Amino acid sequence: DEAHRAVKRQANCSALEELRKYTKNYRILALTATPGRDVASIQEVVKNLEISRIEVRDESSPDVTPYTHERLIVQEEIDLSPEIEQTLKYFQEVIRIPVSDLVNAKLLSGFWLSKDLSMFAVKKEYDMFIARPPADMADSEKRKYHGVFGTLISLAYAYGVYSSNGAKQALDILEQKFTPQPGQHMGMCRNYIVNSQAFHRLTAALTSQVEANHPKLVRLKEVLNAHFSENDQTNSRAIVFAQHKETIATITNDL
After folding, report:
1. Which of 35, 42, 70, 89 is the most exposed place for a label (fewest CB within 10 A)?
2. What is the mean pLDDT of each run of 10 residues along the chain (255 residues)?
3. CB–CB of 118/157 below 8 Å?
């Protein structure tokens, strides 16, 4: 199970390597709900576990449907307030600083200057830089751009938390990542950002919204209140899933 973990020197790979020393008479059944984020990572698992046949199932597969419950999925899009929309623009101004640095160094393509960032996408680009840095780049430059990528990842994470959860959690992340600590060197990029007008505008906007509930939280409470007012509370359950761990305390306190 959890076959997607069979990469590099993970335990499943080492166990199979040991097994090969003694016999070739074995079969492996590898199961996973999340095979990999791209073709290359899936191929690595296939190679490491010597997979010769792949079968895919989802909830609509004929041999799965007898064991699944009927579900009604209602998707709601929550309108953001003008204050949130403006603060997202402030975020984008700050994010443009490390992105421009990486675009000028040809470590990101130009379309990133207008792209809506996600931390996952940035991390993927950073992984590519770690695996294949430019051959003619000096070690000092590599260290510099490690720092720039780290800065961008922190900003992208705070951006995602703010856009889907609220100001307090995003502000906490920025204070943790961009407040100088005694004896700690923040790097040129972070120092430049911390001293920029764009960063000051962003943190001021976030500070002014700390006490305000995100529209998603407001709607969440409405949905749950409606559910439990219309159903027997002794025979009904609700589970709330959150994308970011920083949101859990806020949701718990509000509910």
Report:
1. 70
2. 86 89 91 85 89 90 89 88 92 92 86 70 86 88 91 91 86 88 74 92 94 88 92 86 81 84
3. no
